[in-house]
Design brief:
The protein has one domain: Rossmann fold (3-Layer(aba) Sandwich), CATH 3.40.50.150. 38% of the residues lie in helices and 23% in strands. It contains seven helices and seven strands; from the N terminus they run ααβαβαβαβαβαββ. The structure holds S-adenosylmethionine. Pfam families: Methyltransf_3 (PF01596).
């Protein structure tokens, strides 16, 4: 069950037509952040800040979430959600811009968790950047990884379904990663960086 603050953030997302992760996906991300005792997290696709609130709830108290989105209005709503939830301003770094331009500026091996939300056209590029950012032992997560349950359907051959299949294969074949596809929400791909 979402807290009143999360319910408010979800209402804000719905009001502005911004997609948000399911409560089960959020709870899984919160658990991952807590298990990692995450101090540094990057989120690609801020939306209205719903996923961010789950991540912040699991992260170490002094942890900082860097979140990137190209939509100023979405980030305005996210900031309102952070404020309403009592998140200290220093715990979030919201960056307005295209992830393809922002991610290359972030440091190698400096992050505990990278969450990539949607952005199908550039997903492969964001995954590569995300893996570069992770420290050994860090975790990459991709939400909506089954793309509304279309990825397992062999009749679907359009983008972004094929892009996701290629990303799954790339991650599966990489011996430095330990991946699992969790059937929460519309699929949550989680991959630990072993080294
Ligand atoms: C699904 S929402 C993020 C939701 C958020 N992670 C959550 O669950 O609360 C995806 C966000 O990424 C941005 N986005 C995704 N794909 C995009 C694209 N191709 N071009 C521009 N913005 C995109 C949207 O602005 C939107 O805010």
């Amino acid at each position: 069950m979402d807290s009143p603050e999360l319910q408010q953030a979800r209402s804000r997302a719905a009001e502005f037509g911004i997609p948000a992760i399911s409560p089960a996906t959020g709870a899984t991300l919160r658990t991952l952040a807590a298990t990692l005792q995450a101090k540094t997290v990057v989120e690609v696709g801020t939306g209205a800040g719903v996923a961010a609130l789950y991540l912040l709830a699991g992260m170490a108290p002094q942890g900082v979430l860097t979140t990137i989105d190209v939509e100023a209005e979405h980030q305005r709503q996210a900031k309102a959600s952070f404020k309403a939830s009592g998140i200290a301003p220093g715990r979030t770094r919201t960056i307005l811009g295209r992830p393809g331009e922002v991610l290359p500026r972030l440091a190698d091996s400096a992050y505990d968790l990278v969450l990539v939300a949607e952005w199908p056209e550039q997903l492969a590029e964001h995954v590569e950047q995300g893996l570069r950012l992770l420290r050994p032992g860090g975790v990459l997560a991709i939400t909506n990884a089954l793309w509304h349950d279309q990825v397992p359907d062999p009749a679907r051959r359009d983008e972004p379904v094929t892009a996701l299949r290629r990303i799954f294969a790339r991650i599966r074949e990489d011996e430095s990663l330990a991946p699992v596809l969790l059937p929460v929400g519309s699929g949550l791909l989680v991959a630990s960086k072993l080294r």
